[in-house]
Each structure stands twice: as structure tokens, then as C-alpha cells.
Amino acid sequence: MDILIVQHVEADPIGILGRYLEVNGAWLHTWLVPQQPTPPAGHYDGLIVLGGPMNACEDDNFPHLARVIQLIQEFHDQGRPVLGICLGAQLIARAFGSRVYQNERPELGFTPLFPVTAAGEAWIQDYPPGMPMMQWHFDTFDLPTGAQLLLTNDVCANQAFRLGSHTYGLQFHPEVTPEIVMNWIAFKTDWIEAHYPHLFEELREQLILHWVQSAQFTEKLANAWYSQVVAAAQTVSLLRQT
Asked: Pick the catalytic residue: 8, 64, 86, 166?
């Protein structure tokens, strides 16, 4: 199965999520936006939209965002699975008419998440309540109409949702490796320096405590999502034969 990856910046690649997808048999095709103005041509069975430092509505400075919105809508309407991570989740919300706005406070580092429902979702069936996942965001969003909330916490309510049967948005970062997290320190602003002066040290400690469990969760996520990609592609193929 061929998966299109939208990578907004070099510092936020598909990471360990991509490795698990490849183990399942996926062929990953990355649209690295700083190097390509448009996505690579071809047919793709699934779409993953990664994170980035820009605002989800910042079209004037980042004109590719409008094309990403179109891709999300096209894949969703055609029943091809979509997975949005952080900015990607916010773009899914925007694509279906929901508001994206600044959260009351940012989430930087590993924060606990809590399942709302696990109905039909193999990747959160055994999610330990309060298990921390990596976060790096200042914005949040309203759930699209008809979306099912899957994970939440007290800082940012909408942590994971499903829209329809094949479109998912995750506010947190399941794709990270320790190397990716450490590279994000380069994005520190004066505000972060002032309010999170020990962020580098805290992230190193959190990675030691939480990354292995986070990676195990990411493997379950990758397996479940890729199974949907395969099933959706098989359904399309059968419909074409009838």
C-alpha cells in the first residue's frame, strides 16, 4: 500500500511511526514541503499529515496548507484513511468547518492522556489511563461535527478523535524518537525560555521514563491504522470489479 506523508518541516519527520508502517508493508512517499511546492504525483491508499510550527490557518505565509486541506477532504470523501498529527489534526478540524485557536496554555513535553471510549478502536483498547504522550503545541480546535472523541486530558480536551470510519486526528505526537524531540529544542522561543527554562533537562528525563511505552503504543496505532488502509483499498478494488 502506498501512503502519502505531508511533512511541513524537516524537523518533524514520520519517525518511528513510519518504521512500524514499513514493517507492515507500507510504501511511504513524503511530500517534504520546503523542497517541493506540490505533492508527488501518484495514487495513494492513505494520507498522513504531520505537525509543524505554523498555524493551521496561516495560508498567506504557507500557501501549501490550502492544498493539504483539499487532500484531507478528497481522501475522506473517497473512504481512504487519513491520520493527522498535531498540526495535521488541526487541519482536519479546519477542513470540516471547525475552529482552530490558541489553547489556554501550551503542552510541551509528555503529558497524561485518558481514554474516552475504546469502542471499535484496537489501538486504544488497552490504553492505560494517564499514560503520557509527547506534546508540542500552542493551539487546539473544536471537534468537527459528528466526530467521536477518543482521548482527552485536562489541559487540552481534544487529544484524539475519529471522523467517520477512516479519518483520525491526534493532537499529540506518537511519531517521535528521542532524536526528534531533542531537535525540537531549536524551535525554542523567548517565551519558552522565560516560562520553561529547564525544558531541555525535563524532556531528557521524560524520554527516559516514557518513550519506550510511547513507542509500544505507536506500534499498535500503526498496525491498526495500516489494517484500515489495506481493508479500504480492498473494498475499492472489489467495487471496481462489480
From this structure: 86
Domain at 2-241, CATH from 3.40.50.1000, 3.40.50.880, 3.40.50.2300, 2.60.40.10: 3.40.50.880
**Using one digit for the tens of pLDDT, what is the confidence trace for 116-157?**
976 679 899 889 999 999 999 999 999 999 999 999 999 999
Cα–Cα distance, 80 to 88 (Å, whole number): 16
86 catalytic? Reply is yes
**C-alpha cell of 90?**
488541526
Give buried/exposed letters for 202-232 (b at 16+ CB in 10 A, else e): ebeebbeebbeebbebbbbbbeebbebbbeb
Task: Check if 57 is active-site.
Answer: no
Q: Is 175 labeled as catalytic in the residue annotation? A: yes
Question: Which residue among 8, 137, 166, 173 is the active-site one?
Answer: 173
Q: Are 188 and 181 in contact (CB under 8 A)?
A: no
